[in-house]
Amino acid sequence: MSLKLFFLLFLSLLPDSVLSDPRDTEAALICDTNNTASMDQRRPFITNFSATLEAVSPLIARQKFATVINGTGNTTVYTFGECMKDLSQDDCNLCFARLKTQILRCLPFQRAVRGGRLFYDGCYLRYDSYNFFNESLSGQDRTVCSTGDFSGNRTIFRDNVLKLVRNLSVETPNNDGFFVGSVTRGNTSVYGLAQCWEFVTGAACEKCLASSVQNVTSCAPKKEGRILNAGCYLRYSTKKFYHNSTCASGQGNGGVILAATSAGLALLLTIAAVIFFLRKRVLRKRQEKKQLGALLDTVNKSKLNISYEVLEKATNYFHDSNKLGQGGSGSVYKGVLPDGKVVAVKRLFFNTRQWVDHFFNEVNLISGIRHKNLVELLGCSITGPESLLVYEYVPNQSLHDNLFGALKNVRQLRWDSRYKIILGVAEGLAYLHEESNLRIIHRDIKLGNIMLDEDLTPKIADFGLARLFPEDKTHISTAIAGTLGYMAPEYIVRGKLSEKADVYSFGILVLEVVCGRKNNPFNQNSNSILPMVWSHYGTGTLSEAVDPSLRGNFEAEEASRLLQIGLLSVQASAELRPSMSAVVNLLTENHEIPQPTQPPFLNSSSTEIGRGIPSKEYYSSKHESNTQSTGNNMTESWVEPR
Question: 387 pLDDT exceeds 90?
Answer without folding.
Answer: no
